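@channel sequence for tomorrow's demo:
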Amino acid sequence: MATIEEQPERTLESRLRFTREMMQGSIYRKYEKAMRKFWDPGEFDYEADARDFQSLTPEQQRGIVMITVRFLGGEQEVTDETLPMIYAAHVLGKFDWTMFLSSFMMEEARHSQFFAMWHERVVGAVDVDELREYWIDREKTVDPSGRYSTGEPVYEGLPYFGHQLIDACHAGDLKAVEEGFVRFSTLYNIWVEGVLTMPSYEIVIDTCDIWGKLGTLRHGFKQIVADEGRHITFGTAACRELIEKRPELEQVVHDAINLYRGNAVGMLEYQRFVPELDLQKYQLQKVRHYKNRCRELNITPDQTLIDDILDTGQTLATVVQHLRTLGPRRIRTCVFLDNPARRVHPVQADFIGFRVPDVFVVGYGMDHADRHRNLPFVGVLE
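C-alpha cells (generated this afternoon):
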C-alpha cells in the first residue's frame, strides 16, 4: 500500500511550483469566489421578521420553527463533523483542497450563526428544552464496532465516515484515505447537500413567498443556497479527480448513497403547515439533482423508483420498462404500501413499507377524487 512516507519530500522549489499550478486550478478559483461572496448574519435586519412571525397563525409558527430548528441542528452538526476532510486533504497533499475546505467550514459555521440569531431575535427561543418538541428523535442502530450508529445521513453517517477517514489518515494508507474522502464527500457534498437539502431550502423560500413574509429568513436561505452550491461543485470535482485516478472508487459513491438514503427534512410533515406547497415539485427536484450529480461525477446513476402504493402493478411495470431504456446501472423499486390482492402484472417491489388488505386507502399523499391527500395518517375509505 502507498503510505505517507513514500511521498517525495516537499522542497521550497516544489512548493512554489505547486502554488503556481494550484492558483490556475478550479478548486482554488472556488476558494477565491468564496472569499468574494462573504456575508455577515450579524448585519441582517431581524426586527421585520419578528413582527411577521407574531402575525402568523400558531400552526404557521409551529411549521416554520420546526423546519428552521432542524436546519439549526444540522448546520451545527456539519460544522463539527467536516474537519476530517481537511485532515485528508493535507495527507493527500492537496493544498488547494485545504484552502477551499477552510472557507467551507467557515461558511457552515456562518450558517449555524444565522439560524441561531434568527431564532433568538425572531422566535425568542434558543433553549434546547424549549425546542425539543420540534425535533424528531430517531431510533439508532449501533455499528458492530459498538462506537458509532448508522441509518441517518447527518447525525450518524458523518461521524461514522469521519472516524473511518481519520483512522485512514493516522495509518498513513493513501489509498484508504482516497477511498474515505470519496465516501465522506459523497455522503455530505453530493448526497446531503447536493440532493436532499436543496429542495428543502426551496421549500422555505417558497413558504416565505407564499406568505409574503419573513424576508430576512428568505434572504438568509438564498445566501446559504449559494454557499452550498460551491460546496457541491467542490465535492463533485474532488471525487471525480479521485475516481478518474482509481475507477473502482465509483462503487464507493453508490455504496455511500445506498447506506444513507435519508431525508434531510420531512417534506410531507411540513406540508401540513403550508398546504399550498406542491410536494411533487420538490421530489422531482431531488431526482434532477441526483442525475446532475452523477453527470458531474461522470458515473452511471442507480435508479430508485418510489411510489405510494403498488396494487395492479400497471404503473410500476410501465415506468420500470421506460427506465430500462435510459441505461441505468441498476433499477430498484420502493413502495409505501403493497396490496397484492389486486395484482395484475407480475411485478414486486424491492422495498415495501407495509402490506395492506384489499381496501381503498387515503392520506399521506394518497387521494380519492383529489380529497384526503393531506391527511397525516393512512385511513380506509368506506
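heads up for whoever presents: The domain at 302-382 is CATH 3.40.50.2020 (Rossmann fold).
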